[in-house]
């Protein structure tokens, strides 16, 4: 089973089903991820409205967490160096373990 970026489940029998979005659009407002595609540095700008610590994770296409860092609630910017990551598609996950959960697709490229 594969879940594509449009949140559809793809299976071998060619049956597709749309799944519920893992992100509430009202809580994701104000988060800016740039540049995307990332060449060497990924910058995440947060609105600073989180009520607690937020866990920032980068997950590769195999589902492995390749970067994980907790950040304080008042943090407004996080910079992640992508030089040690292979080129490819990654998922950026921001979560506070309560009501804030954000999932964004990030492309890492090499030149």
Give me the strand/helix succession. EEEHEEEEEEE
Domains, number: 1
Shape descriptor:
globular
Q: How many helix segments?
A: 1
Structural class label: mainly beta
Secondary-structure map with pairings?
Layout: E1 2-3, E2 8-10, E3 16-18, H1 25-28, E4 32-34, E5 41-45, E6 54-59, E7 65-71, E8 77-81, E9 88-95, E10 101-108
Antiparallel strand pairs: 1-2, 2-3, 4-5, 5-8, 6-7, 6-9, 9-10
Keywords:
Immunoglobulin-like; four-stranded antiparallel beta sheet; 10 strands
Describe the model:
By secondary structure, the chain is mainly β. It has one domain (24-108): Immunoglobulin-like (Sandwich), CATH 2.60.40.3080. Helices cover 4% and strands 45% of the residues. The protein contains 1 helix and 10 strands. The strands form 3 sheets. The chain has a 4-stranded antiparallel β-sheet, with no helix packed on it. It has a 3-stranded antiparallel β-sheet with strand order 1-2-3, with no helix packed on it. Strands 4-5-8 form a 3-stranded antiparallel β-sheet, with no helix packed on it. The radius of gyration is 15 Å and the shape is globular. The termini are far apart.
